[in-house]
Amino acid sequence: MTERKTLAILVGGGPAPGINSVIGAAVIRARLEAVDVLGVRDGFEWIMQGDIDHVTPLDIGEVSRIHFRGGSYIGISRANPTKDPAHLDNAVLALLRLNVSQLITIGGDDTAYSAMKLEEKAAGRLQVVHVPKTIDNDLDLPPSVDTFGFQTARHYGVEIVKNLMVDGWRRSSGTRTGTSASPRSTSARF
After folding, report:
1. Residue pLDDT, tens place only, 69-106
2. Which CATH architecture has domain 6-132?
């Protein structure tokens, strides 16, 4: 008899549209293949401290409609286990204590780097797949490939700026309106 596989899913970085769609699709596919799924709450925040209490089993019934909700169903965090070697060790050991053999990380550049380092540290004990997510579109991907979340954020950003321009044009008081697309340096193409 083969050992039962467990998949863990975690989300790092900031919010972006579509996170719950990715979580839901991954859980449904895994469960159809008889793979157990754990949602790691708040990204790397807890597991990098060795805490395995902040996980939740995920099943099809639970996630089948989460794509209608904003945010991240399992929470999100900017915690980065690569900043301290002990945190990286703790994260690997926590996942192994949970019998996790596969990990899906969803996030931007920091989360992608953490996922790579985690897989290296696990030395074959974990298979890691990273799903790129950023509204900044600042990951090193081919020019024609946008990360999920970017197009939605760009669309809403353009609509907001259009509305501000119309409001500014109609004003007779001489008031000026300014906008900033992102506080970070990005490769976003508006």
Report:
1. 989 999 999 999 999 999 999 999 999 999 999 999 99
2. 3-Layer(aba) Sandwich (3.40)
Q: Which residues are catalytic?
A: 136
Cα distances (Å, whole numbers) of residue 94 to 7, 21, 101: 13, 26, 12
* Distance separating alpha carbons of residues 33 and 12, to the nearest angstrom: 26
| Beta-bridge partners for 12 | 77
- What is this structure's pTM? 0.82
In sequence order, the 6+-apart residues with CB closer than 8 A to the CB of 49 are: 87, 90
* Nearest of 60, 3, 29 to residue 129 by alpha carbon: 29
| 14: its two tokens | 């900031």
Helix ranges (DSSP H) in the chain: 19-32, 60-63, 85-97, 109-122, 150-170
Q: Residues near 20 by Cβ (< 8 Å), separated by ≥ 6?
A: 63, 66, 67, 68, 69, 70, 71, 72, 73
Evaluate whether 70 touches 109 at the Cβ level (below 8 Å).
no
In the chain, domain spans: 6-132, 150-190
